[in-house]
Amino acid sequence: MTFTTSEYTSPKRPRWVLPAIGGVVVIALVGVLALAVTMRDSPQPTSPAQRTSTPATVDLTAAPAQLEWKLIDGVRLPYSKIDGPAKVSGSLATGYSHTPQGAVVAAWQISSRLAVSTDYERVMATQVRGTESERTQVRQEVAEVRNLTPDQFSARFKQPIGFQIVSYDPTFAQIYFAVQSPNGGYDFVARAVLWDGKDWQYQLVSGLPTLPNSTSVAGYTLF
Length: 223
What we know:
The chain has a domain at 67-222. The protein contains 5 helices and 10 strands, in the order H-E-E-E-E-H-H-E-H-H-E-E-E-E-E. It has helices at residues 17-41, 100-116, 120-127, 132-146, 150-156; strands spanning 67-72, 75-80, 87-89, 92-94, 128-129, 162-169, 172-180, 186-195, 200-203, 221-222. It is globular, with a radius of gyration of 29 Å. Residues 42-221 form the DUF8175 domain. This is DUF8175 domain-containing protein. InterPro entries: DUF8175.
């Protein structure tokens, strides 16, 4: 049996159907475009490596966000959920925000790991900038650290109480860290980091002068 009679043929489509369909398509497209604009304008969560300062948002006095200190290899190191490190693999801590705050965290993290990690050569090869003679000096200093008594080690690697960013641009930062001195007052440790296009790297020579011990930390941001 074939469906050829008027009983089984499809009825003609009313003329109002086509305009109605066209209207639905237009409404759907408008909705999609509106959603796309909303998603574009809505703030998106960022990882430490994605957070970047622009000249209009740079704040050299703000502390790293959501900061905590963890005991690693006998020293306390800074960790920020916003400013890094985003990843830790053995002796390497990487993934810092491209901001002054990311530079602060990276400077203390990398320099400390370079001094105390059992795999400091990996740190030096991956995250450190300096001449071969400067690297040789680092190896000598690491050897000295290995011979420190527990009390000497604790005195040498105290957690800093604050920092001061002396200079900052998107490619380079110079920082002083304030540390309580065993002899009273505060000692100041100079550090510098370079942005290599992906992350901060520690520069062995900071370019900053040595500061004398002081009883004041005026001008420093406290952790």
